[in-house]
Design goal:
Helices cover 37% and strands 27% of the residues. It has 273 residues and is of the alpha/beta class. Strands 8-9-10-5-11-12 form a six-stranded mixed sheet, sandwiched between helices. A hairpin with a 2-residue loop joins strand 6 and strand 7. The N terminus and C terminus are likely disordered.
C-alpha cells in the first residue's frame, strides 16, 4: 500500500486497501447503485445489508469486474491498493483475482464446472498463480475443508459438484477463495446455504483469516447475526442508495435512521460471539 501523506500532526497515514468513491452502476442505462462511497482498511470487515434488489451484490461484482453484459460503472472510481480497477485492462484485472481479491459466490455450485472434480478445479485455480503439485493443492484444500466441517474431504475432492449438496458446494467455494489467502475477500451470502452449526465454524475460520493474514472482507448478507459477529463497519442500502454507513455497534444497536431501524426490527438479532 502507498502512503497517503501525513495527518495534521505530521504522522504518516496509510491509503485504504479499497476506496469506493461516489460509484454509480447502471445496467442498460438504468442506475441500480447510486453514489456509493466507502473505505476498507487492511484487516477490516465491512458488512453490506439491505433488502433483496438493493444493490448489495452489484457493488462487489463491480469490484471484481464481473458486472456482465449491460452492466457498467458510469460514475465514480474503485481503487484497490491505489489502482483504479474501473479503468484497469481486463488482463491486468485477472492477475488480481484469486491471489489479491478472492470471491465467494452466492451460488457456489453454479460457479463450479459440472464436468470436472472439485480437486481438479482447486488445483487448476492454485496452479494458475503459483507453482504447486496436485497432491500439495489437495493437501492444502483438505486441511482447510476439515476446519469448516467437511470431514470427508477426500471424497469431496474426488466428487463432481452435482454429487454434493448445496451446503457442501458452498463450503468448497469458501475454501477455494480462502486458500490463496487474498488481501481482500468478497463474500456474497457465504453462509446462506449452511446450517447454524456450520455457519459458526465458517465464521470462525474467516475471522482467523483476518487475524492470521490481515485479510479484509466485504460481507454481503441478510444474516444480521453474521454481521454482528464479524463486521467492524456496516453499509445499509435501499434501492441502490446508501441509507447509513458506520460502526457495527451504532448501525445495529443505536441507529437513528428510520429505514435502518425498520430493517433491524424485521430480522432476528443474534448476539456477537
Amino acid at each position: 500500500m502507498k502512503n497517503n501523506g501525513t495527518d495534521t500532526e505530521g504522522r504518516l497515514t496509510m491509503e485504504p486497501l479499497l476506496r469506493v468513491e461516489h460509484v454509480t452502476i447502471c445496467y442498460n442505462g438504468k442506475p441500480v447503485v447510486q453514489d456509493v462511497s466507502f473505505n476498507l482498511n487492511q484487516g477490516e470487515i465491512l458488512g453490506v445489508v439491505g433488502e433483496s434488489g438493493s444493490g448489495k451484490s452489484t457493488i462487489i461484482k463491480a469490484i471484481m469486474g464481473l458486472l456482465g453484459g449491460g452492466g457498467m460503472v458510469t460514475r465514480g472510481d474503485i481503487y484497490y491498493k491505489g489502482q483504479n480497477v474501473v479503468d484497469m485492462p481486463e488482463k491486468e484485472q485477472r492477475k488480481l483475482l484469486g491471489p489479491e481479491i478472492g470471491m465467494v459466490f452466492q451460488d457456489c455450485e453454479a460457479a463450479l464446472c459440472p464436468i470436472r472434480t472439485v480437486g481438479a478445479q482447486i488445483y487448476e485455480s492454485l496452479s494458475e498463480h503459483e507453482s504447486i503439485t496436485k497432491k500439495e493443492a489437495c493437501e492444502r484444500a483438505g486441511a482447510l475443508m476439515k476446519k469448516i466441517g467437511l470431514e470427508d474431504y477426500e471424497r469431496v475432492l474426488n466428487s463432481y459438484p452435482f454429487e454434493l449438496s448445496g451446503g457442501m458446494n458452498q463450503r468448497v467455494g469458501i475454501c477455494t477463495a480462502m486458500l490463496m489467502k487474498p488481501s481482500l475477500l468478497l463474500a456474497d451470502e457465504p453462509t446462506s446455504a449452511l446450517d447454524v452449526t456450520v455457519q459458526k465454524r465458517v465464521v470462525e475460520e474467516m475471522k482467523l483469516m483476518r487475524q492470521d493474514y490481515g485479510t479484509a472482507m466485504i460481507l454481503v448478507t441478510h444474516n444480521i447475526g453474521v454481521v454482528g459477529a464479524m463486521a467492524d463497519q456496516v453499509l445499509v442500502l435501499k434501492n441502490g442508495n446508501v441509507m447509513e454507513y458506520g460502526s457495527t455497534d451504532h448501525v445495529l444497536n443505536h441507529s437513528e435512521n428510520e429505514y435502518t431501524r425498520k430493517l433491524m426490527d424485521s430480522v432476528l438479532h443474534l448476539r456477537r460471539g
